[in-house]
Amino acid sequence: PAAPTNVSVVSVPPSSAYISWIDPIANADGSPCVDLANIQVFRDGSLVATVAAGTEEYTDTPPQSGYYLWTLRAIDEVPNVSEASNGAGGIAGNPSYFSDFETDDGGWVSDNPDGWQWGTPTNGPGAAQSGTNCWGTVLAADYPAGACYQLTLNPEMPITQPDARLEFWTWYDTELAYDGCNLKVSSDGTTWEIVDPVRPYDRDAFNTANTCIPGERGWAGHEQGFWEYMVVPLGAYVGQELQYKFTFGSDGSVQYSGFFLDDLVIWGGGPAGEIAGQVRRIGTNAPIQGATITTLEDPSAVAQSDATGAYVLDIEPGTYTVLVHKQGYCDISDPNVVVEDGNTTTRFYTMSYPMGSASVTSVNLQTELETDVSGQFDLVNSNNATCEFMFEISSDVQWLSFTPDEGEVPMNNSSTITVTADVSGMPIGTYNATIHVENNGETNPIDIPVVLDIAIDLSDIGVVPTEFAFYQNYPNPFNATTALQFDVPVETAVEIVIFNVMGQIVDKPVSAYYPAGRYKIMYTADALPSGMYLVKMTAGEFNGIHKMMLLK
């Protein structure tokens, strides 16, 4: 088979990534692929999952949050294995900062527009590590002699975790002992210190001919020439709000392509304030795990309560309306929560719960042809509930409607729901549907099956004829609609044809298979002139014929 296409990655907090793609429909030679069996998912070249064809999605949770490259291979039933798909890089987890530099420069500031540049490289690597854009020291030419370029970022974000780190992809080509780049951090923007990557710098000290960073350690090398992933620990700076600076320098002689960086991530940082506390159940005071805590003003900041009910929501200073949600409980909205710079605002929440249910497990409706029908059921919120039961009702068919279709049921109360079936244009038969009651209770949704029976007469429901029959149309004479009724004892093809007095076919209102039953078809003769007509039914070996008079 051909390889999967359109591979994309979306970060899923707190530590996963959602990978999606399109399965191949052709083989590598262009012929149709009719026996696709599975798709293999690889993370950084290692197989992590095999999913069935047609799934076209997978959520991966690596052992550590970080930047990864996912590729896919298709397998048919033989099994033949495809070439690897194009890779899709992305973040697994919820980083404090991330930029792939595709739509913007990520907030980094260059001190010289002729030095550090953001865009598409045509020199050096010739392409970004992912996408089309990255940062580099002169994108379209070699760096000059005596270069001294600085690229800075001030995310206004303190380091909060001991395992904090900065990660990025880099490609560089420099004169080894003389030209290169390093990374510095500062808590005040004035005093800067070099931070060391896990994979040590290439040079312990640049030659003094380097006009910008003489004697400093850094990345350098003329033989590098490939994208490499760098990890720089930041745990030593917990509690400090860091600024970051890449400094590139060169001497006065040999020049090469320079230093490029892409897909930069910072882990373990956080906003300058936080809201923390516990979420518990009313009455028992038991901790609630998995409650979602966010704010109306900044829904991108999200926390979840743990097994003890505890949560910490990192957020910038300000005044917020805190929102607490957990299925099976009533939502909480807490306004005017003030978060101060560097401080923790404490909020403990007690969640009330509804106890909603439906009074029926199914709804059965019976009606005659072209006659709408209604039924009712109750949504009940028991006397043990401690808050309102919220609901919204829909179905999987268009012919059902509900009154009301949304609302709330107070504690120790009920709400009557009217279900109406609009049967206009629906032939005789039995129809099935499902009512979906979306709600804030423990069982969501509540699904209620519906059975609708439409018959010529209600007394006909469930009647199975023992022989074929074709009845005289009624009314007769008619203007311009009349009923054609017939019985079918076994499933068979039925055809009803209209003839004029010259024996010419002028209409064919029925031509279909019908299961055993009694049927009534409303026929409208708007296109025919007044006069006498013959109407003939054929079903297998059965033939029935009647005269009918159209008067306009």
Overall morphology: elongated
Q: Which percent range describes the beta-strand content?
A: over 45%
Sheet/helix structural class: mainly beta
Helix content estimate: under 10%
Counted by DSSP, the helix tally is: 0
SSE layout and pairings?
Elements: E1 5-12, E2 16-22, E3 36-43, E4 46-52, E5 57-60, E6 66-76, E7 88-92, E8 97-99, E9 109-110, E10 116-119, E11 134-137, E12 148-153, E13 165-173, E14 180-186, E15 193-194, E16 228-233, E17 243-249, E18 258-267, E19 273-281, E20 292-295, E21 303-304, E22 310-315, E23 318-325, E24 332-339, E25 344-346, E26 349-351, E27 356-358, E28 363-368, E29 373-381, E30 389-395, E31 400-403, E32 406-409, E33 413-421, E34 429-439, E35 446-455, E36 469-470, E37 481-488, E38 492-499, E39 505-514, E40 517-524, E41 531-539, E42 542-550
Q: How would you explain this protein's 3D organization?
A:
- The strands form ten sheets. Strands 8, 10, 11, 13, 16 and 18 form a six-stranded antiparallel beta sheet that branches. Strands 9-12-17-14-15 form a five-stranded antiparallel beta sheet, with no helix packed on it.
- 0% of the residues lie in helices and 49% in strands.
- It has 552 residues and is an all-beta fold.
- β3 (36-43) and β4 (46-52) form a beta hairpin.
